[in-house]
Amino acid sequence: MIGPDAGAWRDRSVTFGTHIAFASVLYLGGATQFALLPGYDPLSEFRMDIPNSGVETMRGTPFFNRWNLIIAAGLGVVLSTLSISCAPPKPIRIGFVGGLSGRVADLGIAGRNGAQLAIELRNQAGGVAGRPVELIIRDDEQKPEVAERMTRELIAQGVVAIVGPMTSAMALRMAPVANDAKIIIMSPTVTTNDLTDQDDYFFRLTSATRAIAAKSALYQRNVQHLQRVAVVYDLGNKAYTESWLGDFRTAFTQNSGEMVKVLSFESGSDTLFLPIARDLLADPIDGVVIIANSVDAALLCQQIRKLDSRLPIAVSEWGATERLVELGGQAVEGVTAAQLFDRNNTAPSYQAFHQSYRDRFGQIPGFGGTAAFDAANVVLDALAKQSPGQDLKQTVLAMRRFAGVQNPVIFNEFGDAKRETLITTVRGGQFIVVE
């Protein structure tokens, strides 16, 4: 056998041979002692006459029983060694936490799929240091208290890292638990400023909202030439939406833009979006900015289009998933959105991932699936390089640079990565990069 496991199998063969030889020496050594005695018949101890038969058979003696026990003990050691050495290696456990249920589960499901694909491909290639990797999946239900409970549950089950969460509100509840346990959280998509530049166990593959929202604001002001905008945001994930709103406001107003109106709402199946749309358009404005998930953003676009078919609409990256286009239909044509990746990227690594994802799940990955695939691979690559006794956090920070399917992932000293922010527009039901 050639490869990383060859040494292990060589050692197992030596151990097996050693035990066999040891048992044989014990048996033969004992028999030799008696064979060397003058006139000793080695079989005399075992012969037994059957009366009136003229037949001799073997009989049990203390000598025979003693060597039976020795041989049995030797074989027991051999079988025990074989059982231990041939047992499959214990899997490495990695957790995943994301919103997998409810009306806005698209981001969490894509994240789960991306992480799952990364681990399946790694296992097909031999795992990590010859050990298989197991993904333990938990649904945070988009409830912070559930996210915290799932984090504790995963830690109790012995995970070495957690991929996720997918939203900022969940991350704020999970991070303190992970810090206490010294288990890293590798988030594919969390962007809140509240976790920026902290020496903790929270890592993320995306830029903070100040970079993403600022680029969106500059595009709306300088390219779209919007001067007066109304903004609406979701309170259900305000760790993200309020960060994004604040950063957008700063960049937009510093460039002579004006935020005429700011509205908020609680996301839910009973939310009425037509009254919100009417309120947004009540004053003269040049455009609307929506900071919400894909479902709510699509429904808002539909109601706004009923009132004004040509008003420019911008959506934050949280809402810019495939679900936005599926639900929004014609109402989201022309909508601009900040993005963290290019769906039409031609890099061979992305094309291979894209095809594998489609083959495995029957759909395209989107930014959530792509980011989670990269996040899981960061964890797997770090585990492969981790030295005995080294904290996984220190391994990641020592490596700093990891391969991504589109662009490399580069962490700073606090575990925050920076990704290029792209501006896209929906054309023909697809996100097309325009800047």
UniProtKB/TrEMBL annotation:
<dbReference type="InterPro" id="IPR028081">
    <property type="entry name" value="Leu-bd"/>
</dbReference>
<dbReference type="InterPro" id="IPR051010">
    <property type="entry name" value="BCAA_transport"/>
</dbReference>
<keyword id="KW-0029">Amino-acid transport</keyword>
<keyword id="KW-0812">Transmembrane</keyword>
<keyword id="KW-0675">Receptor</keyword>
<dbReference type="InterPro" id="IPR000709">
    <property type="entry name" value="Leu_Ile_Val-bd"/>
</dbReference>
<feature type="transmembrane region" description="Helical">
    <location>
        <begin position="67"/>
        <end position="84"/>
    </location>
</feature>
<feature type="domain" description="Leucine-binding protein">
    <location>
        <begin position="91"/>
        <end position="427"/>
    </location>
</feature>
<dbReference type="Pfam" id="PF13458">
    <property type="entry name" value="Peripla_BP_6"/>
</dbReference>
<keyword id="KW-0732">Signal</keyword>
<dbReference type="InterPro" id="IPR028082">
    <property type="entry name" value="Peripla_BP_I"/>
</dbReference>
<comment type="similarity">
    <text>Belongs to the leucine-binding protein family.</text>
</comment>
<keyword id="KW-0813">Transport</keyword>
<feature type="transmembrane region" description="Helical">
    <location>
        <begin position="20"/>
        <end position="40"/>
    </location>
</feature>
<keyword id="KW-0472">Membrane</keyword>
<keyword id="KW-1133">Transmembrane helix</keyword>
<protein>
    <submittedName>
        <fullName>Extracellular ligand-binding receptor</fullName>
    </submittedName>
</protein>
<dbReference type="GO" id="GO:0006865">
    <property type="term" value="P:amino acid transport"/>
</dbReference>
